[in-house]
Amino acid sequence: MGPLFGPEWKGAAVNLYRLLQKRAAAGRPVRVGLIGAGKFGSMFLSQVPTTPGLEVAVIADLAPERAREACRRVGWGEDRIAATRFTDNSMTMMESADVEVVVEATGHAPAGVAHARKAIREGKHIVMVNVEADVLAGPLLAREAEAAGVVYTMAYGDQPALICELVDWARSCGFNVIAAGKGTKYMPEYHASTPDTVWGFYGLTPEQAKIGGMNPQMFNSFLDGTKSGIEMAAVANATGLTPPPDGLAFPPCGTHELADVLRPGNLGALHHSGQVEVISSVHRDGSPVANDLRWGVYVAFEAPNDYAMRCFQEYGVVTDPTGRVTALYRPFHLIGLELNVSILSAALRGEPTGVASGFRGDVVSTAKRDLKAGEMLDGEGGGCVWGKLMTASDSLRVGGLPIGLANRVKLVRDVKQGQPVTWADVAVDNSDSTYQYRRAMEAAFAA
Questions:
Q1: Which of 294, 305, 396, 439 is least buried, going by the fewest C-beta atoms within 10 A?
Q2: 361 has which bridge partners?
Q3: Strand order in the sheet with 325-330
Q4: Nearest one of 348, 333, 337, 349 to 48, comparing CA atoms
Q5: Full-prediction pTM beyond 0.85?
């Protein structure tokens, strides 16, 4: 009897790298159009020279020369730079016949929605690094992409896609998911942080931050809770897990106690089973949490029967006191260095690495201080509002202004500190295409 699997066997379980090798051998590399050569885009670009079969055809950036310099900085040779087109016109770039996958890495929500819709119309797969845009209108963008026969996907390497992977693993194994999310450093006072105060919370002086080229508004959005809300809304919309009704609780929790803290009925840490939650790397008194998960992601799940529970014990699985609940975690994420997984999954498998399947979570602009009519909101990470995670039903009920549309919009009514800013509180340009698309998404998924 000969070998079970000979050299001609063509099994289905072929991994991404093997599929990529086939494309490379056939002289048909996966060709990418990148929009935005900032930090995330640069991290992705650094991996291209060591990924045979993957090429960047075009880079679109508001400053093409800056994008060229970014390529040099991450190690591209002049030959590779010369073979790559650079442009400041992202819309025209997506019309290029040699672009198979578009990567949207701008971080600007309205631009992200426009780019995604253009890519879909042009028949390109779209990798949405721009989580802000995904939370603003991802469910409708995903529906459009499916109808057009292209892939719309979250970006692997960013925490939402990694969380989706853990949830998918647990469910595929037959486990009930209790909670999933990520870690961060959290204190309640961070919600009031502004670009003027942010560096003190990071332990930096403004001069040190300036030397490091650090953007205060961007870093503030990570600190004040907005990014956590955005990322958990994206996970909820993709996985079917739901937000806690009063927003994220940020319970302090180390990796050794995930199963104990994130268990059904443990009020104060979880509101309900099957929710998204962010855990804090510091206690409320500012002291560090042991074995923190500040840079990582996790999924908490439970054994479906007594036999599986015994298996947990036999194989050294860390559980809660009942022996039924446990958790799996990944201690860090590599941002753009891992983006290839999404690109190749879309191009070679036709599969997303996380995609919105409904409208379950939203991020609503919430006043950092008493706001007065006539003030101009300054967007995510600014001095006026932070983004609070809410259930989509609660957001629709109060008419919440999504954080992705809270930039350069004027208040027409006073809003008290801690209160949501609503559509009725601001002067909205009803002719704005992003506003119209968001409202269309709300109508399409209101049920």
A1: 305
A2: 391
A3: 275-280, 176-184, 297-302, 325-330
A4: 337
A5: yes
